[in-house]
Structure formats: structure tokens, C-alpha cells
Design goal:
CATH topology: YbaK protein
Number of helices: 5
Largest sheet: 5 strands, mixed
Number of strands: 10
Helix content: 10-25%
Radius of gyration: 15 Å
Strand content: 25-35%
CATH class: Alpha Beta
Length: 163
């Protein structure tokens, strides 16, 4: 395999290294609106293992992160019900960037600007390895999903809808 291009540090990779968490780095050519499907295609990995990091907010505007398999959508109605909230909706891109400190398309759940609760689709926890954004567009990390539970106190939820 060719040496990866431009593996620069991001807040996410700095945090992971400080925690002594093992991960692999995977660069791909970012395509606007290509999402997890494009990343999975370029990297030759299964789409369900390519996790999306989504910044959402509750009815009071409090942000939260949901980590989903790349081939699924979030049922915001089910998520709100499971969290005991009235309503959850995706943040506008500018708002998501303010909360996370990352550009949309490069959002990582690690080392976000604001500390936010993290929720992970339960099915991802059964995977040995997932590919999640490393804090820059076109840059995924291969990592155990258990890291999200242990390092970010991510709570499992069942909110996946087929696309």
C-alpha cells in the first residue's frame, strides 16, 4: 500500500495519541456531498463500517453527537424518545461547526470544541473495527468502536433507519 498523504495532526488524533489509543489512518479524496459512501468506495471498506459523526440538537438547542453506520439514517423521533426529549434535529452546518470545531464533512467525535454527549448506534459496537472521521475532510481513522464508549462515554441507542 502506498504511503498515506498528508497525515497531519488534528485535535482528534492528538487526543487519541495522548490517551494511547491505537488507530490507523486512511486518506481519500474528499468529494463534496460524497459522504460515507464515497469514503467507503475509495478505501475499499464496507459502507456499514464507515461511521458518520452527526451533530444534532435538542429542542433547547443543546448539541449532541450521534455516530451512525454509513448506510443508515437517524430516526430523530426514536432518538428523542430514547433520550426522553421532545425533539431532536440536525444542526445547520454553521452551527455544527461552532459546536464541534470541525468543518462539516470532517467532523470527528473526538476532541470537539464543546463537550457534547455522544450516542452510538448499537450495531456498531458489535464491529471489531470502524472507520470514523479523524477531524479533517478526506481522513478516516480505523478504530475499535469501544473507544467511543470508554473514552467518550458514548451511550448505545437503536435509531437506525434504512436509507
Amino acid at each position: 500500500m502506498a504511503k498515506s498523504k498528508h497525515n497531519s495532526e488534528t485535535p482528534a488524533t492528538q487526543w487519541l495519541r495522548k490517551q494511547k489509543i491505537v488507530f490507523t489512518e486512511h486518506n481519500y479524496d474528499y468529494v463534496d456531498r460524497g459522504g460515507a459512501a464515497e469514503a467507503a468506495r475509495q478505501l475499499g471498506v464496507a459502507l456499514p463500517l464507515t461511521a458518520k459523526t452527526l451533530v444534532m440538537e435538542d429542542e433547547l438547542g443543546k448539541p449532541l453527537i450521534v455516530v451512525m453506520p454509513g448506510d443508515k439514517e437517524v430516526s430523530t423521533k426514536n432518538l428523542a424518545r430514547q433520550l426522553g426529549l421532545k425533539k431532536i434535529s440536525p444542526c445547520q452546518p454553521e452551527q455544527a461547526q461552532r459546536h464541534s470545531g470541525y468543518l462539516v464533512g470532517g467532523t470527528s467525535p473526538f476532541a470537539t470544541r464543546k463537550t457534547m454527549p455522544v450516542y452510538i448506534e448499537e450495531g456498531l459496537l458489535a464491529c471489531e473495527l470502524i472507520y470514523i472521521n479523524g477531524g479533517r475532510r478526506g481522513y478516516l481513522l480505523g478504530i475499535s468502536p469501544q473507544v467511543l464508549v470508554q473514552g467518550l462515554n458514548a451511550k448505545p441507542v437503536q435509531v437506525a433507519l434504512d436509507k
